[in-house]
Amino acid sequence: MDTLQPIEKESIRNASELLFNSKYAIVLTGAGISTESGIPDFRGESGIWKKYKPKIYGSIQSFLKDPSKFWKMAEEIAPTLFNAEPNPGHYAIADLEKLNIIKAIITQNIDELHQKAGNVIVYEVHGNINRFTCLGCRASYTKEQLLRKLKKEKNLPPGCNYCGAPLKPSVVLFGESLPNFEKYMSIDIAKKSDVMLIAGSSLTVTPVCDLPLYTLSEGGKIIIVNDEPTYLDERAEIVINNKTETILPLIVEEIKKIKAEHESKTHN
Ligand code: APR
Question: Global pTM?
Answer without folding.
Answer: 0.96
